[in-house]
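Troubleshooting log. The previous structure file for this entry was overwritten by mistake, so regenerating from the original sequence record. Sequence copied from the archived sheet and checked twice against the printout by T.R.
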Amino acid sequence: MSQEIWINLPVKDVERSTAFFNEIGFQAESVGNERAKLAIGGTTILLFPDAAFEKFTGSKIADTSHSAEVIFSIGADSREDVDAFIQKVELAGGHIFGKPSEIDGWMYGTGFADLDGHRWNLLYMDESKMPKR
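Regenerated output below.
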């Protein structure tokens, strides 16, 4: 059995979302007429138009202006990477909902919403400061 996972994400405008993700440093490319493939590390996220997503899931998409269906967490290599990344997000039109800040003395992160309101966070973890059990 394959151990790969693909995440399917509804978007209002696949072309616009593809451009946004490329602007912030991810690798996104069109796949066929109506979808795009977004690669982050070893994870693949497929961007589908809202209507196509609803058709194959058999349910309505979440209204991201009122609720969050998921948060995608991405590891960063340094605090500086977090700061530089969130500036790209802001310039590309993303919404910052969590300004870069320290968490529990060993994590540093930020949160943003993409063009469709899907929530993401970027987190640097300083393992040398991580509490031991």
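Helices lie at 14-23, 50-57, 79-92. Archived copy saved in two places this time.
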